[in-house]
Structures are given as C-alpha cells and as structure tokens.
Design a protein that fits this description.
Elements: H1 3-13, E1 18-19, H2 23-28, H3 37-42, E2 48-52, H4 58-66, E3 71-76, H5 79-91, E4 97-101, E5 116-122, H6 140-147, E6 150-160, H7 163-175, E7 179-184, H8 187-194, H9 197-203, H10 208-215, E8 221-226
Parallel strand pairs: 1-4, 2-3, 2-5, 3-4, 5-6
Antiparallel strand pairs: 6-8, 7-8
Helix pairs in contact: 1-5
Length: about 230
C-alpha cells in the first residue's frame, strides 16, 4: 500500500466524525451505533439522510451545506475515498456531516428501525454483468435491507448515467408496486418540469465523473421512490 493511502487511513482513524466499526460490529451489528446517531454523534434529533457508496461524498457535502437542519452520513468501504469527504467537512466546519466505513450489504446492522429519513444512491457501479445483478444497490435484497432502517414514507433516490441500471431499477419498482415520487431519463433537459424545487436544487450538484459524462453527451437518469 502506498504511503499516501497509509497517511489518509491514519488521518481518517483520528477523525471523530468518521465511524469505523470493529470486526465484531461488522459481523454482528453495532448496539453502540444503532439508534444513537442523532443523540450521540450529532447531538440533536434532526432527520438523517444516507448517501450509499458515497465515494468522495460530493452529495453528502452538498446536502449538508444546503440543509443544515438535517444530518447527513456518507457510507463507503474505501477509506481513501471517505478521507476526501471527511477532510472537506472538517475544513468547512460542517457539523451535520459524518461518515461510516462499511459494506452496504451490512447497512441494516448500523441503524435502527425508522432511524433514516431518506437514502441517496449517486452513480453506483451498475454491475452490468447478469451474474452481478444481486450486487446492484436497487436489487430487491438491498431494498429489503433499506426497509429495516428507512422510516415510513422515506424515499430512496437513485441518480445514474447507466441505462441498464435505470431500467433494472424501474423493473424492480414496478414489480414491487412501489410509489414513484419523481423520475426522469434525462435530468438536465426534462427534470426541471417534473421535479420539486428541492430536487431541482439538489440536481445542481454534479459529481466529478458526472461532469465528464455530461461533456460526452450522456443522459443522466433519476428516480425517487418510496418503499
């Protein structure tokens, strides 16, 4: 492992707003964390938004800036990715931004029933190979995990450049007869007419790779749905 990665891992380990569960917690869940995020980490009772597979946490940070009356948690397993988002949150003094380093497959082990207000999935790996379908973050198995932590009426929001992931997700939504709040196959040409003011504001946040894909002429898709 390179020296730069080791430095970042060491910095992350010393950040109070970055939670790195123990091996025991990763295997069996965490009573220390479950149900205690707002009271113990944020010291308030504000609603919680998760960004799953957050990468450099561009959406976690943007939402923390836009909505200071909410708590925001970026979730990723890659410590060097979380480092960038966590570092920015420190530099900008964002008390409502925190990070959890874990696999998304274990997400239900770290939050209690109804503890999460909404979930964002921004440009996840589309897992295009048929044999990898269960790894897609909108697969029914993942939706079942989200159901255990998401409050009634809470939303799952997917933003992607992948037509295959968008189509797969819509098939799952239709099959499960889930309520769709907003959707667009081309956010920046069609979204303005369909989305709420809040969603349009959030759509102004573009990740590094999203900007590249837009320059290449790719269409960005979005779905907001209720479990």
């Amino acid at each position: 492992m390179g020296k730069d990665k080791l430095r970042k891992f060491a910095e992350v380990s010393g950040m109070d707003h970055v939670i790195e569960p123990s091996k025991e917690e990763m295997l069996h869940g965490s009573e220390r964390l479950r149900g205690n995020w707002s009271s113990d980490l944020f010291n308030n009772d504000a609603p919680i938004t998760l960004e799953l597979a957050c990468g450099k946490a561009e959406y976690t940070l943007a939402m923390a800036r836009m909505f200071p009356y909410r708590n925001h948690i970026g979730v990723d397993i890659k410590g060097n990715r979380i480092w960038r988002g966590a570092k920015t949150a420190l530099e900008e003094k964002l008390p409502n931004a925190a990070f959890l380093r874990t696999h998304i497959e274990s997400i239900q082990s770290f939050f209690s029933k109804d503890e999460v207000d909404q979930i964002w999935i921004t440009f996840p790996d589309p897992q295009k190979k048929v044999g990898r379908a269960k790894k897609r973050l909108t697969h029914p198995d993942f939706l079942d995990r989200y159901r255990t932590i998401l409050r009634k009426g809470g939303t799952v929001n997917l933003k992607t450049d992948s037509s295959s992931l968008y189509d797969f997700s819509m098939d799952v939504i239709l099959d499960q007869k889930l309520k769709v709040h907003a959707q667009s196959m081309d956010v920046y040409r069609l979204g303005k007419k369909k989305f709420s003011d809040e969603l349009n504001l959030l759509m102004e946040t573009k990740t590094h790779y999203e900007k590249i894909w837009l320059e290449e002429g790719k269409q960005i898709k979005f779905i907001s749905f209720e479990l």
